[in-house]
Every structure is written in C-alpha cells, then in structure tokens.
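Hi F.,

I've been meaning to write this up properly since the lab meeting, where we talked about keeping a consistent format for the predictions we share between groups. The idea is simple: the sequence comes first, exactly as it goes in, then the structure tokens exactly as they come out, then a line or two of notes. No screenshots and no reformatting. I'm using this chain as the first example so we have something concrete to point to.
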Amino acid sequence: MPATAVEQEHRVTPRELFFDLVFVFAFTQVTTLLAHDPTFAGIGRGVLVLGALWWPWTAYAWLTNTVDPEESFIGAALLIALIAMFLAALAVPHVFGDDGVLFGASFLVVVAMHLALYALAGRGNRDLLVAVLRLAPWTLLGATLILVAGFADGPRTWLWVAALISTYVGAGVSGTTGWRVFPSHLAERYGLVLIIALGEAFVAIGIGVSQIGLGEVAAAILGLLIATSFWLAYFDFFSIRGERMLSDLPGPDRVALARDLYAYAHLPMIVGIVFFAFAMKTIVGRVGEELDWVPAFALCGGSALYLLTYSAIRTRVERRLALSRGRFVATLALLLVLPLATEVPAIAALALVTFVCMALHAYELVWWRDAPTESRSLVPSS
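Output, unedited:
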C-alpha cells in the first residue's frame, strides 16, 4: 500500500482543504454545545471538546506534511477519516450525554487511521517509524478513554481530562527525534485553519441574527471588525515569521519548535475564536439586553486568550518571559472590561471590546509599521 514520505516542500493541496471542511462544521457544533449549556461548567466542557477535535486536525496536518496527500491510497484513507470525523462532529452537541459513544468510536477510528498511515509512511525510514511507535500508545490511550467516557453512567468529565492529558503530554514526552517538518507547508496549513475558525465566527454572527434592525447591523459590523483584528494579529505579524523561524532551525530543534508553536500554541487561539463566535451568536440575538456572565466572559476572555497566546509564543521562542507589550496591555484591558460588560447593553459591551482591538492595531501600525513589510520581504520571490 503506497504511503510514501515526501522529501521536499509542497504546497497545501485541494484534498487537504477538502479534509479541513469537516472542521468548519465541528467548530460550529462546539458553538452549538456552548449555546445549549451557557454555564461556566459548559465552557469547561467546550474546551475539552475543542482540545479533542484539535488533536486529529493537527495530527493529520503533520501527516500530510510528511506524505503526499494526492496519492490515491492516502486520498481514500483521508476520506474515511473525514467521514469518521464528521460523525464525531455530529455528536458534539450531546457528546456528554447520549451521543458520547458515537463520538468516542468515530474519534478512535480517526486516531487509529492516522497512526496507521504514519507507520506506513515510516516503513522505509526507521527513525520515523520509531517516532510513530513512541507516540501511538499515548494517543490510542487518549482516544480509548474518550470512548469509555461515552459508556460511563456517572460524570464523564474526568475521563475526558485524563484522555487529553494522555494525548498532549504524551506527545510532548515522546520526543522529537525521527519526525520531519517542512516549514512552508506546515505554516500555510495552520494559517488556513485559523481562517477556517474565523469563518466559523462569521457563520455564528449570521446564525444569531433573528431579525435585522439597526442594532443587529451595528453588532455584525463590530463583530466583523474584531474578527479582522484577529486576522491582522496573525497574518501581519506571525505567519511568515513563524515559517522563517522553523526554516532557520535544524532537525529536532525545528520539530520541537513546530510542536510548541503550532500543535500546542495554536489551540488557545482556536479556543479564543470559538468563544468569541459563541458570544457573537448571543449578542446579535439580544443587542439591547445585558449580557450574562458566561457570554460576557466568552467575549472578553476569548479575545484576551487569543492575544495572550502571542506572548506565550514569544516566551517560547526567546526562552524567557517575554511579553508582547501592546497585546499584553490589550489583554489586561479586555479583562478589565469584563465586569462592565455585564452591566451595559450587549451592543455597548461589544463596542468596548472592538475599541480595545482597534486601539491595539492602531498602536502596532504606529510603533511596528515596518513589521508587516519586513515579514512579506522574507517570502522568496517566484
């Protein structure tokens, strides 16, 4: 069965983008889960589900970074994984209830398929095969615990926590030796999934509008401005530089940085965007009412988490506590807005968050005005 490891950079293919479509639906389903359980416990369960969904996406992104996704066998296997992932996404709104078994069984198929394909790709590369075998017990244990949680009669949350600890910690302790990373493809892949998540925010705004009035139009515009600020924060200052940092490192160091900056650090960005989408779905349906604490937290806390992640990335790169000054100040401002967001109409709370985001980018355009141009200059001319 052909599953050949590639030996050079390649662009993201249409088949990979087609595979990603299922995650548009999956992220939307998490927003639905949060809407059905708008409590802080529901927020916690939503984070667990996002953590579970993120792992197969990032795992398959690394797989297609290593193998040629256009090979017919790989394409067929990706289709099976896509179908299983879609079934898992269908179960998300009731994953902690009656649909837990469907989610767990589908999730286990997705994980097992990924490991099998990676092992096939490594059959001619002993180091890669050994790396896959080091990772396999951790991820299979995590997927199995999620399936067991589906059968459990009592509280299932702790089984989910144990599953994600096994998956994410296991990936960290299993080491970086043997894995291969092609920086341009990986950076492009993660940039595209960020756009997918932002697209889900657009969908949430549209779904949340039950009638169109002046307030709803204003809320939609403000929400789109915040989503645009998320896009600017990533693509004007990080995406190209992240690729360049990977390109400048050799073997295991490159793999370790790719794991930390992309497989791990992009998850809180996705969580922040999905929280923002949930908040927007609530706000556009009740623009004149005061927000409860949970949607207010999702609005302010989600935006703050997204911005704070960049300080975490900078700290990892520089290997010391290093805050992105403007974004850290904006994070603090968003957290200060949180108590006020529950005391004013939802449209006013949204306007405050929009002001903070726009002020941040005005600051960055003034103080870092050459950074976007410098980043684009790093892209080799064709």
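Notes:
The chain has 15 helices and no strands.
The two ends are 35 Å apart (CA to CA).

If this format works for you, I'll send the rest the same way.

G.
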